[in-house]
Specification:
Keywords: Cytoplasm, Nucleus, Oxidoreductase. The structure is a single chain. It is built from 7 helices and 5 strands; from the N terminus they run H-E-H-E-H-H-E-H-H-E-H-E. The protein has helices at residues 3-11, 28-41, 58-71, 79-87, 98-107, 115-136, 147-153, and strands at 18-19, 51-57, 90-97, 140-144, 162-173. The two termini are 25 Å apart.
Length: 191
């Protein structure tokens, strides 16, 4: 019964070659609805709702990624954010809410040290669900971590107590993913 879900996970790939458009059958409202459902339904510690996301498109997408590109000193480091600015249709920016994490730390001191990890785990789950869902909708995507640069570029647009965790850059695939290889990491049963 889990075969369709496992197939979706297996076919989700990193697609760097993107066109700044959506497939004809998909609207940005569809993307928003998908991301909203994922943020709502991804489990979080103590059902805290620590995950948040915003979707950047249009001039805001280009401006944020232009700022990221400009902020990187090394020319070689500018390549990926410049390609996101110029080739991706948009980006889902994933955040965790530090106020929620701090409240959990105060309310449950025995687990205080673990709550930042719990928040990161929940956010990672949302990232993977979103990536897989957008690919199922016909988009190509790749995950980036220009977290501090993106936060600086979004200053005043999102709450200061939101920590940027990742950026899922998406658009219509312009070329297929490269060959996929696997590490051998068998799952054993211990009785």
């Amino acid at each position: 019964m889990s075969a369709p879900f496992l197939k979706s996970i297996a076919t989700r790939r990193t697609i760097y070659a993107l066109k700044p458009e959506l497939p004809s059958a998909l609207s940005i409202a569809d993307v928003q609805k998908t991301i909203q459902a994922i943020i709502k339904d991804t489990p979080t510690a103590f059902n805290s709702g620590v995950n948040h996301a915003v979707i950047l498109t249009g001039a805001t997408h280009k401006s944020v990624w232009g700022s990221v590109t400009d902020a990187i000193e090394a020319e070689a480091g500018k390549k990926r954010p410049a390609s996101v600015r110029d080739e991706a249709y948009g980006s889902v920016i994933f955040f965790t809410d530090d106020k929620i994490t701090e409240g959990l730390q105060e309310g449950f001191p025995a687990f205080a040290a673990a709550f930042p990890d719990f928040a990161a785990h929940a956010n990672g789950a949302a990232q993977m669900f979103a990536w897989t869902a957008l690919e199922e909708d016909g988009l190509g995507a790749h995950l980036q971590h220009y977290n501090g640069y993106v936060k600086a570029a979004l200053a005043g647009k999102v709450p200061e107590h939101w920590t940027v965790q990742a950026q899922l850059c998406f658009g219509t695939p312009a070329a297929p993913a490269g060959e996929k290889t696997f590490a051998e990491n068998p799952v054993n049963i211990l009785n």
